[in-house]
Amino acid sequence: MKNFIHKNGVFVQFDVKEKVGMKNLELLKVKNRSNKGEILSTCVSPYYDWELFAADYEEMMKTLKIFVYPDAFMSNKFSTFSSIFLPHTNPFDPKLGNYFSEHMFKIALLGSSFVTKKPEEAHFYFMPFSINVMRNHPRVHSASVIEDFVAGYTDRVSSEFSFWNASGGADHFYVYCHSIGRDAASKHQKLHHNSIQVTCSSSYFQRLYIAHKDIGLPQVWPRQHQEVVNPPDARHKLVFFAGRVQNSLARRDLLELWKNDSSFDIFSGSSSFPYKEGFRRSRYCLHVKGYEVNTARVSDAIQHGCVPVLISNYYDLPLANILDWSKFSIIVNERDVPHLKKILLSVPKQTYLNMYKNLGIVRKHLAWYSSPKKYDSFHMTVYQLWLKRGLHRVDW
């Protein structure tokens, strides 16, 4: 017989006769470098190495330069396609939903100190087209026309500017959250193979996503303020999930297996109470792959203090080279949905409390602001670019 145990943030199967060490679940000693000596942490750090990251982040803030192609600054009367490149006029419009992050990144970048007018000093070059705007543009909106438009724009950039040709586009990047954006680069080989796509649709299984080159973008719904979270003892439900089951075998299995369990709040479609309330009253909130591997549920759960349970194979988690997701979430293979309750109940109480505390630490990294703040989603995403700097270029 196989059981499950939580070992350092990862669930593994083991034989009941096997001795399982719990050493990794002990509280870790961390060194406080602010001359307060060594202290015992009450919360296993959600960072792989905070001090190394923080020092490199400060260097980025002083050094990084990004050149933005001039289409992002043109007058909206210049062309019928101007809106595709310009920043969104109302990024907190609730109708933007899952595509909010795409627009907020552009707004934050254009107003930041990273932008340079001297392309020769830039580490990276931003191609400012918006897939979400294209999807709603009367002359571009179909998937095939978007692919043609992006390929044509890339050809124009490479012919009018020397920066693209100096690196073959390897120091260029574009940003999107719209699902149609998955294939945006499909008709331009160098854009696909060389340039960096910063995307919410970050899945190893996606044919145009290249994990070692591309970057996962935190997907967040429009939110003006941080939520006040319920403490653990006010969370009386074990699990919450509400979402469409179409195009998802894992979601159908979840609903079929657990819809009648009183410790689970599982809904096909909308919940019978306000969506926010499900996150506030539950210990664990499920992220289950639907049509796409990505949704804003992960950031919603974190903002409301509900430990995310990620049931999405091939998901390249955002900020995964900085954040140790096993310290504030649970990652479960889709085939283990039948064992979900056993897995969650096997989490020791102190481990759950550590994860809950870590949500309060990392939530600032999964939030966008009208005026960007230190370590927010914008700065953390730009830091992912910073880590990819140093490409060799020829002189132009």
TrEMBL record:
Molecular function terms from GO: glycosyltransferase activity
Presence of keyword Plastid: no
Pfam families documented for this protein: Exostosin_GT47
Domain (Exostosin GT47) ranges: 61-345
Topology in the lipid bilayer: Single-pass type II membrane protein
Compartment(s): Golgi apparatus membrane
Transferase is among the record's keywords: yes
Entry keyword set: Glycosyltransferase, Golgi apparatus, Signal-anchor, Transferase, Transmembrane
Main localisation: Golgi
Transmembrane domains' residue ranges: none
Cellular-component GO terms for this entry: Golgi membrane
Family indicated by similarity: Belongs to the glycosyltransferase 47 family.
Name of the protein in question: Exostosin GT47 domain-containing protein
